[in-house]
Each structure stands twice: as structure tokens, then as C-alpha cells.
Amino acid sequence: MKNKAYTFIILAAGHGKRMNSGLPKVLHKIGNFSMLQHVIYNAKQLNPDNIAVVVDLPLIERLECFEDIQLITQESTLGTGDAVKTAVRNLKELPDTDIVVVQYGDTPLIKSSTINKMVSCLEGKALVCLGFQTSNKEYGRLIIEDGSLREIIEAQNGENSDKEFLANAGIMVAYAKNLRELVGKIECNKLIHEYYLTDIVSIAVKSNLNVGYVITEEEEAIGINNRNDLAKAEFYFQENKRKFFTNIGVTLAAPETVFFSLDTQIGVDSTIYPYVFFGPGVKIGSGARVGPFTKCEDTTIGDSAVVGNFVEVKASYIGMDTKIKHLSYIGNTKVGLESNIGAGTVVCNYDGKRKHKTNIGSNCFVGANSSLIAPLNVHDDSVIAAGSVIVEDVPERSLAIARERQVIKKIK
Ligand code: UD1
Ligand code: MG
Fold this sequence. Notes:
CATH superfamily of the largest domain: Spore Coat Polysaccharide Biosynthesis Protein SpsA, Chain A
CATH class of the largest domain: Alpha Beta
Number of helices: 8
Distance between the termini: 86 Å
Strand order of the largest sheet: 14-16-19-22-25-28-31-34-36
Oligomer: single chain
Bound molecules: uridine-diphosphate-N-acetylglucosamine, magnesium ion
């Protein structure tokens, strides 16, 4: 977004009763990152001048550290309208000419390109909303007359038609001046004692202001209120990632069995075999192979490296052309270039209290079924005999054998 100043207001307060959880709703995870992290991550793609998150006290207590974010506390969670009012009142600065993007923390899959479309649509209007077709009655409804948006009506209990309708995705884009004036006029809904943000549409229409709308798909606009929504959103997220990686030149042998995190990176011409799980913090180079039934987390894998079948790699760095082909656990380990880690190698990185580091150099050969007891350094060009339990550092260009000598006795 260029030449204009943007502020994001992300609503994240309220427990989310329908989740039936001890955890505040927006901290539930999709692709191994909280919904709130998704929304902030996508907002940052647009380089906004300011991001504010409306929180309540139970959420603040459990928040991970967010850099460059202003947290605004909503004293009592009196609805989405009250949350935006609180934000507008407490933002460090909010010049009238700023474009404000109001987004719900429980709507994590909204793309930055859709927000851009809404911003383009704002020209000559006070406010732009986002709609999508659905038959799920829990969403508010956009009422369109003569091609323009007149009102948003909240879901009514007891509605039971299966017909699709145009639902409110929740995200709104407005100029700060208009938003400030409009939210100031929201009245408390007497039935449920809440202030509905959605009321600003009819308030704007009554003041003769233009309100626009943009339409997207349910796969993007899904709002998460319960665990079924959460499972659906996880599915949509994974489907998107699978399409994304295949589009940029990664082969997924059975896409529906591979699971990604929000921050997974994979280079072109890499191949991912079935049933692979990528936890957070994984970066894979190009031309690499990750074999079936493998889990990687917090790990960098170099170009042309092979992490094979039934391998778990955690908090590690695997150098270019290195091969770990079968049934291994590699944790807190750095492996150099062109090394070969034999089948069944286990890095024993945890002593029950702390994790320890292992360094394996370049061009090393670790024989099958070795246990490497960390902390440990295995220097370049060395060889570890199969079945060894290695507890001491191995110098360069040396062979380490650490196993019982075989004894043969005649049976009488
Ligand atoms: C809201 C919309 C509905 C829309 C749907 C889209 C209103 C009144 N309704 O309903 O039209 O179809 O989202 O998913 O806005 N929050 C606060 N403070 C509060 C209350 C809520 O910060 O006092 C935050 C929540 O953390 C949540 C978001 O606002 O992330 C939306 O609240 P929620 O209760 O989920 O609204 P819906 O019932 O889903
Ligand atoms: Mg919701």
C-alpha cells in the first residue's frame, strides 16, 4: 500500500465461550500459529504505520511478545462496537486522513490482497465491508438494495433455512474521520447489552454516506467461533499452502497428507513425500527431498539434502547434500555438507533437564544405529562405526568405534 497511512485495529478481546476452552479464542492455533499471529502476520504484509490489538486482561496474561504492536485494553467486553470505540479513543495517534482496517482476531485467513481490494474500493466512500456467500446462519447478513449496502443484520436465533446468503466477514475499511464519527453513534443493543460494530453501516447510510462492499469466498472469510470452525479453517489453510507450494515449483507426492506451518519455506524442485509434518520454523532449500512419515520443526535443511523416511529433525541445521535417509532422530544438531547419517542414528540431546548441542562436520559418515550423546563434536571427514555409543568428541579424519567386541563361543 503506497503513499497513504494505514492503521490496523485487530479485535481480540473476549474469551470465546463457544470454543469451550481454557484458552482465549484468538490463541487457538492454525498451521501452528495462533489466529492472532495470522492476522498480525498478514497485516504486516501491507506495511501499516500502526497496528493496534484490542485485548482484555486474561488475554494479556497469556500473550506472547508482539513487537511494534500497541495493545489496547477493553475493560469489559461489551461487543465489537465497544472494542473499536475503545481503540479509536486510545490509539497513540490516528490522523483523520488515515485509512483504518478493522479486523477480527477470529478471522485469520483474510488475505492482504483482499484488503488491498477493499482499500481501492474506498475511493469516494466512508466505509467498505467484506461479504461472502454461505448458508451458515451464525454470521451477520449484508442487506443490499439497488446494488448498494444498506445494513448489516445480526444472526437471529431459530432461523432454519438452508439457503445461501451474503454474510458479513467482519473486516471493515474506513477513513479514520468517518470511523471515529460512526462508532461514536453506536447505541447499546438493549436485548443483549452489547454494542455492535455492524450498526455503523446503517448509521452511515442514514447520514447519506456511501458504503461499499467487496465479495470473497467462505474459505477466506471463515470466522472461528467453535472447534468445528477451527478444524475447517485448518483444512482451508492447509489446502492453500499445498496449492501455494505446488504453484511455486515444489513437488508434493500426496498433497493432502502434508501439513505446513504459517512460516514454512521450501525452495523449488524439492520433493515432499506423503505424511510429512512441518512444525514452526522450517526452511528447506531447493532440490531437497523429505521422505514419508517425517517430522521437521525449527530446522533448516540445505539444498539437495535428503531427510528420509521416518526421520524427526528438531532445532537443527542440515547442510547441503547431507543425507539422513532412514529412521533417525536429530535434535539440537548442526550437520555440515555431504555427510551421511546412517539408519537409526539417534542424537541423545536431552539429559532430563537440559538440551545439549551436537556438531557433526562435513563429509562425515555416521554408521547405522549409532547413539550420539550430546554435547558432542564430530569433526570433518570422520567416521563412526555402526552401533557405536559416542560420548567423546571425534577429531578430524578419524574413525571412532565404541561398541562391545564380538565374542564367539562354541555351543557344546
Ligand atoms: C461478528 C459480526 C458478524 C460477522 C462475524 C464474522 C458483530 C456484531 N458481528 O460476529 O456480523 O458475520 O463476526 O465472523 O460484529 N471482540 C472484542 N471485544 C468484544 C467482543 C468481541 O474484541 O467485546 C472480538 C473477538 O475477540 C472476536 C471478534 O471481536 O475476534 C468478533 O467477535 P465475535 O463474538 O466472534 O463475533 P461474531 O458473533 O462472530
Ligand atoms: Mg466470531
